[in-house]
Amino acid sequence: MASLTSNPKVQLAATAVVSAAIAAGAILSYQRLQQDDRVSRLKRSIPQPSGSDDDDHAAQSVTRIGPLPKPDKEDEHNQALAHRAQNGDFDDELILEQLARNRVFLGDAGLAALRAAFVVIVGCGGVGSHACAALARSGLARVRLVDFDQVTLSSLNRHAVATLADVGLPKVQCLQRRLVAVTPWVRFDLRLQKFEGAVADVLLGGWEGDEGQRPDFVIDAIDNIESKVELLKYCHDQGLPVISAMGAGTKSDPTRVMVGDIGASFEDGLSRATRRRLKLQGVTSGIPVVYSTEKMGEGKAALLPLAEAEFQKGSVGDLGVLPDFRVRILPVLGTMPAVFGYTVANHVILKISGYPMDYQPAKARDKMYEAIVAYVQASEEKIVRMIEGGRTDVCIGLKVPITPGDIAFLVEEAFRGRSAITGIPTKLMLIRWKKPEETTLVRIGEGSTEQRSSNLRLRDLVCLTKEEAVRHQKKVLHGDKTLEDLYSREVIELVEARQQEAEAYERHR
Question: pTM here?
């Protein structure tokens, strides 16, 4: 060992390695310092509100609504006017003059209904902010804003009213701050928190002082699927009028934006994921959504990959206002959230005012889902009788753990509304794919209290046409043919892929 360390060649090599490491560290440190300096200079270049210092404008906690930056003269004037207007010290003729164009369009009764309405907007980013601004300018008098996030630099390409001076403010405060300068009579109820099912009763409850009045409309402008599904499911179950905005990201064609039923929307990733979750919870239709039919193609923007390190560490961009808040890599053309937001607001205005609406209705498939449930039930009863030696008594009261929502999910989402064998989209049915190797009968209890059910799971079923299902039942489920005897390897692999997809989503039931 001593001879190695005293060897001039070894010493020279070791020196070279150490020198290279030091040089590399110095270069990386210098690059990091340069990056930090650029970021600091950019942040310092954002103008502060008149009369405020850095501490006043620092990023505020998302667990409370902090004070606005020290107001300038314009802010003071706007807030004073809003205080007067909301306390009745504002000439109603001035309000009606400002709303004159809406008044002649909607009529006196329609505008009066809008002015008396109460709307909740959940999500105050690009879509929600434009919807809010349009509703306020159109005559809505009471609006509750729900959002936990703050205005960032990247918000400014699509937010309706935010300015550089608003960076770091909660989005709900930003909207109130800017819109009182336009419509001082509008009352804002600001809720700086994330929507979750546990707080739905509070966030979607009555207006303060009139807790008995439910919202006339709820606007879903959330881009988080979990929260979105919780909100829509709650509104559906409670009978609250709601409209949901789907994904504006990666879209560029405003002529393809439309309003339709949640069960009929397509060519939209957020809509597809939302539909899947809702169908598994029994909500197959009845929720209007704003979505785009634009197809993706070569050269068009697409969702950018997020590095695994980002997922593991929750890394953020250097310009993020909140620490530890992950940056979403979603290309958004600034005009498209505005198109979505105004379409949402337009729907709400027409609904509340009672103006005639001629939207194209969604395809009604509920009867088809119910027919498929009945077919699955009958098919499972036949399988039980076959396994139990032809006994019919074992099928009395047999229950199948499949709902119309499950059927809708499997047919429309997992199997894309087509037969897995031929791709035919008509006369569709669901049936077991593999022949059971043992009994499918599940018994709980005894005698008159015994419950009988099938052990059927979503991932056991395949979508076929009625004719294909009859043949499959005869030759595979009740016969001696194997899947390989009847179907190609391509078909079998396709069915297995669709069933794996169903299994992944089955946990959301």
Answer: 0.68
